[in-house]
Design goal:
The chain contains four helices and six strands; from the N terminus they run αββαβαβββα. It has one domain. It is α+β, with helices and mostly antiparallel strands.
């Protein structure tokens, strides 16, 4: 998994060099499975309706680098900066609502959202320091949105 994460880090650095920034480039566990992940990519330059093109470009990068992504990645989710899920994750990183704790042994980050919703992730890149979040409320409806994403 470590070599796979290094390859993902290289890809995220390429994207940043090409596009200028990324808000989030991370793997999120699928139902707490340690070997199946969803890759989430988000950036300010991502526009609604352009996600298919971004996934296609990402898959080409995997192919060019001979990365067998299907061993670890179940789905690829591309999100604009307005996506509610991104704002919930940013709030956890900024310790406004929730928190992020990294397990030093496994490298897995435990993202706590709301009072009782936990997501396990491997963060390749995050850039939430200057991210302007919209006001979020922890409701059962918002948790259901997260559950449908993952």
């Amino acid at each position: 998994m470590n070599s796979f994460l290094e390859k993902l880090n290289n890809i995220s650095e390429e994207i940043i060099a090409d596009k200028g920034s990324l808000l989030l480039f991370a793997l999120f566990s699928r139902n707490d499975q340690v070997d199946r992940w969803d890759l989430v990519i988000s950036a300010k330059w991502i526009e609604s309706g352009k996600t298919r093109e971004i996934v296609k470009n990402l898959l080409e990068k995997f192919k060019d680098k001979d990365i067998n992504y299907s061993e670890h990645i179940e789905n690829i989710a591309v999100m604009s900066e307005t996506d509610n899920f991104l704002h919930h994750i940013a709030a956890a990183f900024q310790n406004k609502k929730g928190c992020v704790e990294k397990n030093k042994e496994t490298g897995v980050s435990i993202i706590k959202l709301f009072d009782d919703y936990i997501i396990h992730a491997r963060i390749v890149h995050e850039e939430f320091d200057d991210f302007e979040m919209k006001t979020l409320k922890a409701t059962r409806a918002s948790q259901k949105v997260l559950e449908t994403v993952f």
